[in-house]
Amino acid sequence: MTWPDGSQYEGDWREGVRHGTGKMKWQDADPHQNRCYNGDWDTGLQDGQGLMVWGGRGSYQGQWKKGEIVNPDEILRDPTAKAR
């Protein structure tokens, strides 16, 4: 699915929302702000294991709960981070 702003989601759906495993790329006006999440979804939110990369500024790979990072101390500030 592609949104009007260019953001894209590829993966599983349930009852019209992201649910299961999938990859979401958010297309922001500033390409340095683009985000990509690849992992588990539950009723439209990141939930379970997943990898988020923030426009080459850093990444987090680990546990998510209801769209929130479970262990924020594990965010890597890595300018060479790339989405998988």
Describe how the helices and strands are arranged.
Blueprint: E1 8-14, E2 17-26, E3 35-42, E4 45-54, E5 58-65, E6 68-69
Antiparallel strand pairs: 1-2, 2-3, 3-4, 4-5, 5-6
Strand order of the largest sheet: 1-2-3-4-5-6
Radius of gyration over all CA atoms, rounded? 12 Å
Question: What structural class do you assign from the helix and strand content?
Answer: mainly beta
- How much of the sequence lies in strands comes to over 45%
| Low-pLDDT ranges | none
Oligomeric state of the chains in view: single chain
Largest sheet: 6 strands, antiparallel
Give the terminus-to-terminus CA distance. 18 Å
Q: What overall form do the CA principal axes indicate?
A: flat
What is the β-strand count? 6
Number of domains: 1
Helix-strand pattern, N to C? Answer: EEEEEE
Walkthrough of the structure:
With 84 residues, the protein is an all-beta fold. The chain has one domain. It is built from no helices and six strands. It has strands spanning 8-14, 17-26, 35-42, 45-54, 58-65, 68-69. It has a six-stranded antiparallel beta sheet with strand order 1-2-3-4-5-6, with no helix packed on it. The two termini are 18 Å apart. 19% of the residues are buried. The mean pLDDT is 88.
